[in-house]
Design brief:
The chain has 739 residues and is mainly beta. The protein is 4% helix and 53% strand. The protein has two domains: 1-32; 45-620 and 628-715 and 722-738, Beta Barrel (Maltoporin, Chain A). Strand 10 and strand 11 (207-217) form a beta hairpin. Keywords: Cell outer membrane, Membrane, Receptor, Signal, TonB box, Transmembrane, Transmembrane beta strand, Transport.
Length: 739
């Protein structure tokens, strides 16, 4: 047994945890050469399944894949579709010790992260427009994932689609995702059995364990099972912030000659104590500098409890060699209970007021889809035909109580003061304040039908995609205090898609698209202060966004690159929604226009040297705002540029040693529509190292990463008109053994 002596070195708990986990795993492993000896193999989902099912293969280096799932279009190679997309692999997740989906998306120069509205949820800005956690899909299904924080421990791929995607996947449950969407692929058992145990610890003492087991069995390995169990607990890099998380996930699948079945069950529970969240602007004339990166201006009595249970089933059947039918269904139950505190700035010096609220939130969602993918030939023209149906049923329940404004407690973001919690308003005997049984506040039913055809000319060197999706949205809102319905609308709309791909040379694809996004329209308020709104409670038609994009993609076998230019028009965007004081009518006008250029590089151009980076330049403009007050201004929370530069290098002469580094740089952005409040550009640097070796003939990897090496203090985002601060420096050690 290896001997662990941590007394003479710092971070003794860290070394003790790592060494003991290795010792335990090594002793538990069967002797080499035994019948049940296992080997480490690259994880591959349905490696022998027909093309409609198999995930696209990885690029050299294993960090990204050559394509991903594009909704009704199925799994596609990036070179064959007229859209921009990125697909990040499970290998990248392990190498970077990425714990959440947000950690993975930091690798994409088109994406930045922001805090949710006064809670712990992660919001992703894709091409300058927000994507909420509610609107991330799971194996193609919307509405069944946790909405605040999503663990990566049971994920095989994190796929990013750039641009509006109302045709590809249908309208999202809450209407975000106009700038792009994210789809998560669950892990599946590979033909090579897997037994993997990992442990990690951060510099602040947060310890985690993760067990990943995969096995195929039966004739021709037709049946598969993949089980993931993980937990992490301890202090984060932010002062007085503590997190605890647990995950249990099971993925089962059957891989027949024509029939393929899969099922997933996931249970995730998280508790966050003293969680630092967003800062509201209040009465300020310029944005104060960010506090020290580890400063926590959230009071110690605040907490968040998140619990999600979800499951889904999927079936695919090959009718013949050219046609495949598929169907999937899933459901989710979420329960959130929070003692929240929001900090609102009082002046330019960092003085602020801390509020208090108690909020219970529950969701019961169901989702289903089905379709048919096929290919055929008409003379010299090839066709890839797709039919799809989808439906989402969501039900939200809420109960909440706030403190009176006069009871908010004073604090300062540079020198936080935690006093007694502000006194909450007296709960009334109404459904809206029954935290054990929250009342229904909203129901949404969305259903759609889609059809598309990709026509191939000149031996598929020219591909033209034409399609449309007809969508119906039924949205009902309820008063949380009385339970009575306050709004109900039923609207339908059709969103088309046009795309073209031309391959002038073997390794090059030129592409262009016109595609639309869709979000449910707003409902005008009944009152604005003391003013009764004429026509209040009226539901407005869905808002249609449009994108035009063109670019070039290069696939050189071991590495690739993409260059794209886009223009997105989003109506309303919250900048022109107001009550006209003269007419007492609700006004909804204007649009936000985002223009950008994206360059991405990925792969392994030289053996042992992996690159992953890109740059996005963005110009944003408001038009048609109320009375023209903000016409020509930049939109809130859209940086002028975003730069990523990542490298992972196998050190020559040192077998098994790899070094990595990453730089994130983000340009300035505005926090208000009038462009009076601005955030400066910021930089973040991450470094890492891995050592892979053999212990008792078992593969072992020991890794170390340091995020935000300089412990830089910066405001990460102004999305939503409030401030999200970047994370502080955190060092992590990890050890993984395949036994």
């Amino acid at each position: 047994m290896p001997i662990c002596n941590a007394r003479a070195v710092p971070f003794r708990p860290t070394l003790l945890a790592l060494c003991c986990s290795l010792s335990f795993a090594a002793q538990a492993a069967p002797p080499a050469g035994a019948d049940n000896a296992l080997e480490l193999g690259a994880t591959s989902i349905n490696a022998e399944a027909p093309a409609p099912t198999a995930l696209p293969p990885e690029f050299a280096g294993g960090q990204v894949a050559r394509g991903g799932q594009l909704g009704v279009l199925g799994n596609q190679d990036i070179m064959d579709v007229p859209f921009s997309m990125s697909s990040y692999t499970e290998k990248l997740i392990r190498d970077q010790q990425a714990e959440t989906v947000g950690d993975v998306l930091l690798n994409d120069s088109s994406v930045r992260q922001a805090s949710g509205y006064a809670n712990q949820s992660q919001t992703f800005m894709i091409r300058g427009l927000p994507l909420n956690g509610d609107d991330i899909s799971y194996n193609g299904l919307y509405g069944i994932l946790p909405r605040q924080v999503i663990s990566t421990d049971a994920l095989e791929r994190v796929e990013v689609f750039k641009g509006p995607n109302a045709f590809i996947n249908g309208v999202t449950p809450t209407g975000s995702g106009i700038g792009g969407g994210v789809n998560l692929q669950p892990k599946r058992a590979d033909d090579v059995p897997l037994r993997r145990f990992s442990t990690d610890i951060s510099s602040d003492g947060r310890i985690g364990e993760h067990l990943d087991i995969g096995q195929r069995f039966g004739e021709d390995n037709r049946f598969g099972a993949r089980v993931n169990l993980s937990q992490r607990e301890g202090d984060t890099g932010i002062d007085d912030e503590n997190q605890r998380s647990k995950l249990f996930a099971v993925g089962l699948d059957y891989r027949g000659d024509a029939l393929r079945l899969s099922g997933d069950f996931v249970y995730q529970k998280q508790r966050i104590n003293g969680g630092r969240n967003s800062v509201f602007l209040g009465k300020i004339t310029h944005v104060p500098d960010a506090p020290s990166a580890d400063t926590n201006y959230a009071p110690s009595w605040s907490s968040t409890n998140l619990e999600d249970t979800l499951g889904m089933l999927r079936a695919e059947y090959d009718l013949n060699e050219n046609w495949t039918a598929y169907a999937a269904a899933g459901a989710k139950h979420s329960r959130e209970m929070g003692r929240y505190s929001s900090v609102t700035l009082s002046d330019n010096l960092g003085n602020a007021l801390a509020s208090r609220s108690t909020i219970a939130h529950e969701e019961n969602n169901r989702s289903a889809m089905g379709g048919l993918n096929g290919k055929f030939q008409t003379g010299a023209i090839s066709h890839r035909l797709n039919f799809g149906l989808a439906g989402i049923w969501t039900e939200a329940r809420n109960a909440y109580v706030f403190n009176a404004a006069a009871t908010s407690t004073p604090t300062n973001i540079y020198n936080p003061v935690t006093g007694a919690p502000p006194t909450l308003n007296s709960p009334r005997n109404t459904p809206g304040t029954d935290f054990s049984d929250p009342t229904i506040t909203g129901k949404t039913f969305v259903r759609s039908a889609a059809v598309s055809d990709t026509l191939g000319f000149f031996d598929d060197r020219l591909l033209v995609t034409l399609g449309a999706r007809r969508q119906q949205m039924v949205v009902q809102s309820y008063n949380y205090m009385s339970g009575s319905r306050t709004a109900n609308y039923d609207e339908s709309i059709t969103t088309p898609v046009y795309g073209i791909v031309f391959k002038p040379w073997e390794h090059v694809s030129l592409y262009a698209n016109r595609i639309e996004g869709l979000a449910q329209g707003p409902t005008s308020p009944l009152k604005s202060g003391v003013l009764t709104v004429i026509g209040g409670g009226q539901a407005y038609a869905p808002a249609r966004s449009k994108q035009i994009e063109a670019g070039v993609k290069v696939d050189m076998g071991t590495y690739g690159a993409t260059l794209g230019v886009y223009r997105i028009e989003q109506p309303g965007a919250g900048y022109a929604e107001a009550i006209d004081a003269t007419t007492a009518r609700y006004v909804r006008e204007g649009q936000q226009i985002n223009k950008g250029v994206e360059l991405n590089v990925f792969g392994e151009p030289v053996s042992g040297l992996r690159l992953l980076g890109g740059v996005t330049l963005m110009k944003t403009e408001l038009k048609g705002t109320l009375n023209g007050a903000n016409d020509g201004n930049r939109a809130i929370g859209v940086p002028s540029f975003q730069l990523n530069a990542g490298v992972d290098w196998d050190v020559p002469g040192l077998q098994g040693v790899s070094l990595s580094g990453r730089m994130l740089r983000t340009g300035g952005q505005y926090a208000d529509a009038a462009n009076n409040l601005s955030l400066p550009a910021w930089n973040r640097f991450d470094v890492g190292a891995r050592y892979t070796f053999t212990l008792d003939e078992r593969d072992v990897t020991v890794g170390a990463t340091v995020e935000n090496v300089a412990n830089a203090k910066y405001w990460e985002s102004a999305q939503g008109g409030f401030l999200s601060q970047g994370d502080p420096r955190v060092a992590k050690l990890s050890a993984t053994i395949d036994f």
